[in-house]
Amino acid sequence: MILTVLSGRQETEWFDIEVADEYSVEHLKLMLGVRIFGEPPAEGMQYIMEAKFPEGLWFRVGDNQLLTGSGLREGCTVRIQRAFSTTQDEAPVYGRRSLFQSEKMGKYTHEII
Q1: Residue 73 and residue 2: Cα distance in Å, rounded?
Q2: Does residue 99 have a pLDDT over 70?
Q3: Max Cα separation, the chain?
Q4: Of 61, 23, 10, 48, whose CA–CA distance to 2 is shortest?
Q5: Average pLDDT rounded to a whole number, residues 22-42
Q6: Cut 0.70: pTM above it
Q7: In which domain of life is the source organism classified (predicted)?
Q8: What are phi and psi of 105, to 5 degrees?
């Protein structure tokens, strides 16, 4: 499948990548992390992947599955974010915020999911 990868904080920086459907999400995150950040995740660092369909909302891609079972399809847009933590546990969510910020009219605003 062909995916569009956002490689910067602005949606103007992107590239397309072709991946096999049998890849695991972890393998794809590792490949993209090396390509975008120039290194695999170090101790206490993890990569979080989000994806969306054209004109859709961003959703988090789970780690322990193959790409075909993750909800990703041909033409999806994906992005990854480095997170520094010593645990895989997540804090309770009372409201959702995007991992990325966009700059509008000179101010940074959070995109609401």
Answers
A1: 8
A2: no
A3: 42
A4: 23
A5: 88
A6: no
A7: Bacteria
A8: 55, 40
What residues contact residue 90 under an 8 Å CB cut-off, 6+ apart? none
Spatial distance between the Cα atoms of 101 and 18, rounded to a whole number of angstroms: 27
Relative to beta strand 77-84, strand 2-6 is: parallel
Is the torsion defined by CA of 57, 64, 92, 108 positive or negative? negative
pLDDT at 113 over 50: no
